[in-house]
Every structure is written in structure tokens, then in C-alpha cells.
Amino acid sequence: MSVFTILYRNIKWRFHNSFTIIVTILQPLLWLVLYSAVASQTMQGTGIVNYTGFILPGLIILVSFSACSSGGIMNYMMKADGSFYRILIAPVRRTSIVLGQLLEAVLCTFLEVFIMGAISLLFSVEIAADIGAILLAILLVFLGAFFISGMAYGISLILPNEVVYETVMNAIVLPLFFLSTALFPAGGMDGILGVIVNLNPFTHIINALRSLLLNGTLATRELLFVFILYLVMGGISFSWALHRLNRETAL
Amino acid sequence: MYAIEVNKVVKKYKNGVQALDRLSLSVQKGQIFSLLGQNGAGKSTLIRILTTYLQPTAGEVTMLGKDIYSEAAAIRSEIACVSQHISIDTHLSLEENMIFQSRLYKIPKAAAQKRMEKLIADFDLSKYRKYPVSSYSGGVKRRLDIALNMMSNPHILFLDEPTVGMDIQSRMAMWDMMRKIRDDFGTTIFLTTHYLEEADQLSDAICIMKGGKEAIQGSPDTLKSILRQSVIQVKFADSKDAQKYLPLLQQHQPAQTFSIRNASVLCNSSDEHPSMADLMSFLLEYHIPLLGIEILQPTLEDVFLRLTQDGREGCA
User: Fold this and answer.
1) Which of A95-99, B198-202, B227-231 has the lowest mean pLDDT?
2) Which domain, by its residues, includes B238?
3) For the purposes of burial, counting CB atoms within 10 Å of the CB of B262, is it exposed (0-12), middle (13-18) or buried (19 or more)?
């Protein structure tokens, strides 16, 4: 029950600070609308029919990063206004505090993904997925966002202030985004770059989402791999966030 | 029964700073207990330990009969803390803030609604219900902060410098509120303050901390009496007269310490009544022109300054 109490409060915070939704979705939207229009001409020989549709899964992950990073900012604001301390001395389990906050970031991610998905339809993106594939894609987005929000939560409890936090998050997000298959297919890549792209866990979730949304299918083996990978990563991320919260009081 | 018992508590932070050094104190149920001390004396660390935010390095802490190490979760439902900085959520309305607090403490919905109405009435917050919390003045925000911390009907309420930055009217209103919380709700109040007058007016018991440990604990009157020294004040018409007659007084009572404050000569005496009688007869006999003579009792400020001065630590 306490999870929902924390979640409800954080949702209220999000809508009270609705500019955080606009700010976090703005950059992925610009990529979707402007970059795809410009780059689609240079991608004509690669066999990609609709480049906007091709980059949509990568931008779903990018918007997850943005929304979940802003969840970390909430910790700094709560520390500044004293409610962080008030909640920690209330009879609420630490797991509920972390989970409530992570789920808010995940819900914000879904809202922004929904907006992006709706806008992408205006750019002739054809979603070939049936209801089953869409449900699987939703589950994947949930797992991805949960992992990212856990990492963002933990990082926000390590770094001293919002400015350093934003800088570090940007330094993490952009290399992960560019060294994945978000903007181009991995087929032609070899050497060290190909290895790095293949080791990037976001490559696999982007590929899986792309296959589910644009083709409506995904091989069971690949699907299981991505699910297990993100279940494990989500578990580690949540445990780490919880560990960082416990460290807050172990001074 | 004691609400709080602290026995030889040590807190050494991981960065090496020792904030508490074998501190011991006890707070009786239903008291207003004030913790005084200079900046860095360890007050905030103690509050953070008592509110279960930090764990002590060593020592024993019992709150309402429960051990703080093993029963922290149970203690949390029985305490609340109003921090020095207002901790209300400005994105929530007045009612939402109070309901959120009640949910954190798992108060049933009907009971929470009833309690909220009572607190809104008792803390005179009715007229602010319709306005956004962010538009409230500092005093109203502070009232709401205390009211929402009372939603869980805590047995112990911690108030960390609750009147800092308030004007005198707001401060006096806050004092009334604290007495009301003690008397009407039966809540034990543990407060830290820098205002000695506030501690003197409000407290049933006071502890003065110095260097991470208690320098003294007792009622305000007990604390004042520990100086066992009163001051005899001889008032003159002006400071020139005070300067003029000081040597005569010193000559007459060489065993006492004399000093000048404005137009008065002050005599520190451990035995005020015989000294005063003797001084009066001396002043009358020599026709020394004075405006008056009186015994000044030590104030809490005198006690605080005496106990917190370096190298002059005392304990009763």
C-alpha cells in the first residue's frame, strides 16, 4: 500500500511540474521529426523503408532515459524541501519508497512513449504488431525503464547536486544511445565498434522492440534472452538503488 | 515512565567527526523538553538518532520502552519530526499533504479525515484550505508542517528549532500551540532551540549540551539555582557616580567581585542576603547617593553562557 502512496504523491509532483514531461520528450521528438526527415534520404540504399519507423524503438529508449533521469532529480528536490527526511523516518519500508519512485518514472516513460507513438503515426510509420506483440513490447519498455530508473535513482544518491547529476547522466546516455542500433542497422558493423554495439544491452532491447513493432514477430530465443537480460539487470538496478538509500542513513 | 532514555551514546561519523561523546539524558512522558547548545554541540545528530534516521556508534537508546537498534520500525509509527526547514509538499494541497502523511502512517481513512478536520480547526488553518500551499506565509507553512506531523497522533514530537526566523507574535502563538499539543494531545515534545527565553518559558526540562555531551539537565529553575550565585545591583544616577563609588565598595567588601554595567555597580555574591544588608548599611552610613539596590537572580542565559564557556564546564 505504501508503494501506491509514494507513487500517487510522485505522480502529483510530475503533473505539478509538467514542464518536466515537455522537457524530457522534446529531444526525442526532435529526433523523430527532424532527424528522421533529414537522414531518411541518406538511408535509401540500406533497405530501410520508413526511417522514422526504424528509429522509433531507439527513441523509445531515449525517452525512457530522459523520463527516468528526471526521476532522479526528484531526490534532490525532496532533499532540499525536507520531505526526503520526513519519508525516511516514517514507518514505510525502504523498498516501498524506492519502488514507488521507480514506478512513477516508468509511468512517465509510458506517457511519453504513447505521445511519441501517436506522433510517429503522422509520419507514415506502420505498426505491424498485433495485440500480443504490442503487449510484449509494453513489457519490454517496462523492464527497460525500470532498469534505467533504478540506475538513475542510485546515481542521484551518489552525486552531490543536480548540475553534476545532469552532466553525468548526459555522459552516460549519449554514448549508450549512439553506440547502439538506435539510428542505424548493426549489419555492416565489424571490428571493435561492432563488438561494443553488440555488448551494449540497449542494442538488444532496441532490436527486439523494432522487430515486435515493425514486423510483429520476434524469435522466442531472442525474446527470452532480452527478457532474462532485463529482468536480471532490473533486479540488480533495484537492489543497488535500495542499497544507496540505506547508505543515506549509514553515515 | 520515560519517553526517551539515552545512555552513554556515542556517534562517530565515518569521516571521523565525533558528534556525540557518551551523552546521557532522559525525557519524561508528557514533558516539553528543550535541548540547548551552541552550533556543533551535537543537537542535530541527537535528533537524527532519536528519529531513527541515524544509528549511534555505541550506547543505549530507548524510546517509549523500545530499543532503537532492534525496534526502529515500531518506534517510527509513534514519533514525528518537524524539521528546521519546512517539509510540506508544495505541489500538494493542504488536505492532500495531511492525507499523504496519514497514509504514510497507515491511519484508516475515516480516522484520518476526522483527525484532519480537528487539526485544521485547532491549528486555525480553515481559511487556507482553498489556497495553494506555495502561497502561504512562512508562519502558516510552519503551522501546517506541525499539523501534518500531528496526523499520526505521535507520542513524541520532535521540533528542530521551530520558531527560527519568526517574529515575536508568531513565536508566542507557536509557544501556545506547543503547550496545546502537550496538554490536549498528551504528546511529549522534544525541541531544540537557540532562544533561551523560549526554553525558559516553555520547558518542563532542559538539557544543555556541550562538545557532544550533556553539560547539565534539569528544570529551568534547577538550572538557574546551580549557579548558586546572585548579583547585587546598586543603581546610581549615572555612570560617573558608578565609577566614583566603585573603589569605595571594593574597599568595603574586598572578598566580593565588583563590576560596572552602565550606571550600576554589580556585586557577585554567593551569600546575597548578608552581603546586601551590609552593603545597604555601608551606603546609608556614608550617604552615598543611589537610586536603588536589588538582588538579580541568574537567568537561563547566564547559566547557558557559564556552562558553554570553554574550560568552565560544570555539572550539577
Assistant:
1) B227-231
2) 230-297
3) exposed
